[in-house]
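[step 3/7] inverse_fold.run input=structure_tokens len=208
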């Protein structure tokens, strides 16, 4: 099955979301060598080969939707690898309720943190989830010590619903009422949806 977002680019003001491809893996792999990021994302370091396998599974699994977050000022123009700032994921793993999406955001580039990149990327992904994937409830699980991320989700109307002291995680939740849906679409009405294949054409072709 073709992944729904395989050719989707979501272009916002600060960030642009593009599908996660094999070309992004080396940079991604480099990020994940960071102990801080391993801790914040509760993940184990993988070899480059394992990271490539992971990317293939992301591409092929129906219950995951992922985008790489690029800096809108840099791309298109600079190479994608040099424009990457993080990733945003949606897991549709609740078999009883396909309208629940668990959202995850990582701004891996330290120079890009605290600049609103994570917030815009999360809003873009949420609007995409609501419009294209039929999501009506979002959940986020965040390490208790990750205060910046917790406060960002609260600004996006998420409420803290549980604390898992074993995993030291906070669970936040947002139900998309009509009012929330309206707000979300207003927050993202500047976003342009484009074709990844077309945008990937060399820049000089686009200029003519």
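[step 3/7] decode complete -> sequence:
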């Amino acid at each position: 099955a073709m992944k729904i977002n395989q050719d989707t680019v979501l272009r916002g003001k600060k960030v642009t979301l593009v599908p996660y491809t094999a070309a992004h893996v080396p940079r991604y792999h480099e990020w994940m060598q960071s102990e801080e990021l391993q801790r914040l994302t509760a993940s184990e370091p993988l070899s480059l080969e394992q990271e490539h396998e992971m990317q293939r599974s992301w591409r092929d699994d129906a219950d995951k939707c992922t985008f790489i977050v690029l800096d809108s000022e840099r791309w298109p123009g600079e190479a994608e690898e040099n424009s990457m700032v993080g990733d945003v994921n949606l897991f549709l793993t609740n078999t009883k309720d396909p309208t629940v999406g668990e959202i995850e955001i990582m701004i891996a580039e330290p120079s890009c943190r605290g600049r609103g990149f994570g917030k815009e990327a999360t809003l873009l992904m949420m609007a995409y989830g609501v419009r294209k994937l039929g999501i009506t409830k979002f959940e986020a699980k965040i390490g208790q010590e990750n205060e910046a991320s917790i406060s960002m989700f609260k600004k996006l109307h998420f409420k803290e619903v549980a604390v898992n002291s074993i995993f030291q995680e906070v669970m936040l939740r947002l139900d998309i009422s009509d009012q929330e849906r309206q707000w979300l679409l207003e927050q993202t009405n500047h976003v342009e949806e484009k074709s990844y294949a077309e945008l990937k054409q060399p820049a000089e072709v686009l200029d003519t």
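[step 4/7] annotate
The mean pLDDT is 89.
The chain has one domain: 8-193.
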